[in-house]
Amino acid sequence: MRRMIDFFKSSIESKKSVKWIELVALCLLFLCSIFSFGTGMTKIHSNAGQITFVESIEMVRNVEEEDFDEDYTVCDVEYTNGTQSMIISYSYDDYLQLDGNTINAYVFETENGTKLYFDHKDVSTQEIRESYKQKMANDTMAIFNLGTSTLILFISVLVMFLFAKQFTTYEKVWFLSIMVLATIFSVIFPEESANGVNGIVIMLLYLLDTFLNILCELLISKQSRYNFLVSVLVEIVEIVMCIVLMYRFATMVTTLFFWLPIDILSFVNWTKHKDDQEDQLTAVRSLKGYQEVLVILAIVVWTVVVGYFLSGLDIATDFYHNKTLETAVIYIDACASAVGVANGLFIFFRMREQWIAWYICAFLESIINIISGQYVLLILKLGYFTNTTYGYIKWSRYIKSHKEEKLTLF
Residue 396 in contact with residue 352, Cβ under 8 Å? Predict the structure, then answer.
């Protein structure tokens, strides 16, 4: 009896220690995020001080990075001289009038040694102020990415802390491990600006997408109907990403007209099919062989039709500078959206095959992320692969233990 009492005491003390560790981690992450944002904003809005003209140099136009067409309202042309670079924004009409590959750049220097470059010497105070802010934003991008990533990580730990009883130790470790990796990658591989959107904003969208997606995936593996509430936020973020980055339009249309409605309908359907013993669980099932064949045929047809249609559209994006590569991505995106539709239907009908669809989607989207240089999102795909295995095993065990029960679709 004495040993049993000692065991319970040590168990309680251990749980208290874990709680304190979680609270300390929350405080540190929050303070780190506030400090990072504060440092970054201070530098961006700092006073440039006295500006001095240094010299005039010749810069060469970086033609290889240019791929503009009439869809662009602003064309950012880069000129370089060794490690020095200058970006000049032209309208598309002015861009067409460019007839040379060199330009005279006028170099100015601030009191703290920051160099600013202009294509004319008589610069105004407003031009200097804006150029200095942009320069500071680029220089402090790693600081802002750290602030953004620690903020998302803070939210991740907070979710695990507030709903600790709802998750197993494995689930907590998996969830937080993916978010820690995303944090590390966001600092090591910062995003460059694209389509006029600052890389800091793009990174925020990537990290938010990662957080919401893996939380949604985790809830699905737990057969929780509340995954669909998180999924609605996932769809909103991904629609914003497609619009902001001007890419993956097949996925955007599918998300807007299929995923958002199916999330709502699925929540209703899952609510109707609660497990008899555990109210938080949803009863799940599996497909028959001929049904799987029909699904595969539908995916192939969708990929060919949607890919052919989108490849004929002339849509500009900063991510691809090769037409063949862009066409390949369009077809991969079309296939991913087709598998996504099948996945959505599998989830709606509570089918175990949705995990197979997750595998395929994760693989196809990983290819797109690598081609696009979106390395932070590869962490999300790592989360997909690992949790998909976990979810498939959990659902299979449930189906095996309930195989004698008659499970209806609706």
Answer: yes
Contact of 13 with 145, CB cutoff 8 Å:
no
Residue type, 318: D
Largest CA distance in the chain: 91
- State the Cα–Cα distance between residues 68 and 92, nearest whole angstrom: 8
Q: Which two tokens stand for residue 158?
A: 């907070």
For residue 122, the 8-state DSSP code is S
Question: pLDDT (tens digit, 0 to 9) for every residue of the chain, 410 residues total?
Answer: 555 444 444 544 555 666 778 788 899 999 999 999 999 889 888 888 888 899 999 999 988 777 776 656 677 788 999 888 888 888 878 888 888 888 999 999 988 888 999 988 888 888 888 888 888 888 888 888 889 889 999 999 999 888 888 899 899 999 999 988 888 888 787 777 766 677 788 888 888 988 998 999 899 999 999 999 999 999 898 888 887 776 667 677 778 888 888 899 999 999 988 887 887 888 887 766 555 556 666 666 655 665 555 554 444 444 445 566 666 677 777 777 777 777 788 888 888 888 888 888 888 888 878 877 777 778 888 888 888 889 989 998 988 887 655 555 54
Residue with tokens 């199916």: 262
Distance between CA atoms of residues 51 and 54, nearest Å: 9
Contact assessment for residue 395 and residue 351, using Cβ atoms and an 8 Å cutoff: no
Domain ranges of the chain: 52-138, 245-401
Rounded CA separation 327/194 (Å): 19
Give the tokens for residue 275. Answer: 């497990």
Q: Which one, of 139, 116, 140, lies nearest residue 128 by Cα?
A: 116
55 to each of 52, 89, 105, 122, how far by Cα in Å? 10, 22, 8, 13
